[in-house]
User: Fold this.
Amino acid sequence: MSEFEQKIVSEVTADFKKRQELRRPIELNWRLNMNFVIGNQFAQISPKGDIEDGGKQYFWQQREVYNHIAPIVETRLAKLSRVKARATVRPATSDDEDVASALLTTHLLDAVCKENNFSALLSVANAWSEITGSAFFKVLWDSDRGRALDAEGVVREGDVSISLCPPFEIFPEDLAVTAIERQPSIIHAKVLTTAEVKRIWGKQLKGGDVNVFSFDNAQVAGGLGYTATLPKIVSEKKEDSVTVIEKYELPTAEFPAGRLIIVAEDELLYYGDLPYVNGDDGSRTYPFVRQVCIENLTNFFGTSVVERIIPVQRAYNAVKNRKHEYMNRLALGVLAVEDGSVDTDSLEEEGLPPGKVLVYRQGSAPPVMMNTGQVPVEFAREEEKLLNEFVMISGVSEVTTYSQVPSNIASGVAISLLLEQDDTRISLTADSLRECVKQMSKQIIRLYRQYAKVPRLKRITGENGDVEIAAFSSGNLGSEDIVFDTINDIEDTLSARRAMVYDLLKLGLFSDEDGKMDSGTKAKLFEILGFGNWESGRDSDDVHRKKALKENIELERGDVTPDVYDDHALHIEEHVKLCVSSKCTRDREFRDRVARHIASHNELMNLGGGVEQLERQFMEDGANE
Assistant:
């Protein structure tokens, strides 16, 4: 290794260790959140900088866990799963070419998400975001994916790869900068086996034991006379592995294309420019997209709801356990014994079972049960207050967490208001999820623009569920205006959507002046009501319109002859739209071709057209034969 390479490796390694130390307090909070979610709720951050448990102070101490954090997180995840992660692309203009390009790009995004199993990745990302506050997606171009270009399958055309990065793997340069695009540099550190490093970069490293997080059980709970185990997050060693450090640097005056440096075990695996033109206005930036639970204005990483609930959960566990200890005293009793009057060892082991013969010293006072009183009512009051604090801090009410209506609420309007408040609180997280999918979709489009220079094929799914093979290249992907088809998917439930559609139908807003509804409107209504696109499969008008749009694109290259079975009126309508567009106005030859094509449709329509003309043509062909 040259002197320059040694310098680069030492700089990156030192920078990584520095960022590890700066991020350690945040990482400890993440680990504490994870412990509380899985049930290890007696964990705490020790002065040594680790997650530890203090243990029982007395053998009779009650240390049970009454986990309210887990159902709150599960409820929030269930609500987030209703957010549609499907992005659509809006055409730049109303020209047929731009409309076709936007439709193709939308289908391409759907295909990429399906190939990368994005719905499963998003579910895991939501879990990371809810527990730690942040999750990251990494959008790369994988040259080992796509169709094979040779007989052996070694050379492939490449395709987009989407992976999930837990927040433990991301190390920003400045923790105070919240926007990912304004970070001067970002380090992505991950643990790989030496075999994986050999396969990806072709270098054989020595490897060793690397610390990773795992689950284990610990006997830290229980009560008087019994013990219980709780799962906890522990550190374990992964054998024959190395920590791969990828450092991404934004473009600067010294490095106009930015830098990507990959280091592992004092070896330089890669050094070069940022590989992807995936930023705005053709710039190079990070291949990462950030998703947060709640935005933190002072930190790069988001804030988790779990972090806010931990003090309430600790107090709730303490109240419940102290209450049960008091009840143990009521049930078992507390004996007052005069010194030397009885065999205390036997009394401690056996207690006072029914029928026991208690022998005590003559002349001394017999043992008596002390009056422990009743369970103070303050325990119940404090327990109720803490349950209300769970709702207030998490934003998840009893209706959604426990699937039951509070006993003091009987009004349907009040229940609807509770559900609406829950949806309002979680809408901030849903907005972050949508923005994450939006930015990721833009990066996918830009990667195809960069690498799909030659025509390539992609399997896409049409509106009716039909699987098609689409041919495209970077020139077909012209629009980047990413939108979502719904505003708020959490509030817009299926039942609410159906009720709204039924009300609009009663008002007659979907019908024309004669009170009739066309087939296209029916198809859209079936889709909104959640019954699938039934009518669209039989909608011949839609098929003819799509054929006319394809003819518009083909007319740019030359004349197109209409078919006798075309719906000429619909075709003429679509071709006239093309005639009055700016594209035809600029190109007189193109406009003349479209005009001749319209004239052919008019001629066929005047001759009878449609099925009658088709039957006459078949009869003439048969007579000639």
User: Anything to note?
Assistant: The longest strand covers residues 226-249.
